[in-house]
# Entry
Amino acid sequence: LEHCGGIDAIRATTEALLQVISSPYFIDENEVSISASIGCALYPEDAHDADTLVKHADIAMYRAKNNGKNAIAFFDNHMVSSDAQEYQLAKELRYALENDELCMFYQPRIDLNSGQMCSVEALMRWFKTSGDGTEVRAYPDVFIALAEKIGLISKLDTYALHYCCKQAAQWAQNGTPLQVSVNVSVTQLQQDDFVATIVDAITQYQLDPRLIELEITESAAMTDVESNIRKLSKLKEIGIQVSIDDFGTGYSSLSYLKKLPVSRLKIDRSFIQDIIHVDGSEQVDAAIVRSIVALGKIMQLGLVAEGIETQAQHEFICSLDCDQAQGYLYEKPVSAKSITALLSDECDHQTINAINYGSVGDDKAA
# Structure
């Protein structure tokens, strides 16, 4: 530390480095700029060997990201407990992504007129196998939030897309085609190569584009909406459908919503959970759901109710003439093997009633 001129000298050097990195430059006449987060660990104060020193600098770098990015953070021992765990999980997530440890489960979506499974929503899962068997390494709300934080979410999205296209192609080849709905993050949607990424995946697996649906949250759809309209219109031209997920939780402009090339609105589960009082009377949320359904029908959009867990909820959305639904009342997210068995049963018996009024599942890590 003394040879470096002290912490003040190190801070001055790193601040100058940040300034240089963030200086704008031109690519094909377009001005672009980048930012960085810098973590610093000092020898011998913070570590006595190179590996630990680098690890502590990396932990400090994550703290800099937490502080708003384009920042500098110096390591201290208070970071070790929580940040070290996050650092380890981030390291394992990168490994899992590179070594196919992540997989997709699929939750059936039910056609409310026929009671048949009409499509599935793909949901990512992360399992670890050890001597004691297979267990959940982290739940989606944890590792997806982490992926967003460390800049890995686009790779996670692309992984999910290819995984689902490959599976959808397999079902189609088996003679049981089934549409798969894949979630798209706002980060991936904003990528310049977003359309090319989707098209490349479909082409690679020789998949009918109609067998893939993209789910985009309402807030993501309204981010740089004019660009989104252009991108999604190109995908619609080749047959890919788009749905607005979690509808009603964002701040959509109806003037833009009617321009977006979407096929469906998915009514957020938060409006479904409390639509019926214990005494059978309706909650305010029921009025909100009625309004969303009315809006969707006026705009000639399909309507999907999420989070159906009780018979009363099922009967309510059926009374509104909602098109489709998904939730634990019908089926929890299951493996591709389980969906294949359902499809095989449908093929053998010509028809399948996918609505199962058994107990609501306990595994709610959807």
Summary: DSSP finds 14 helices and 13 strands in the chain.
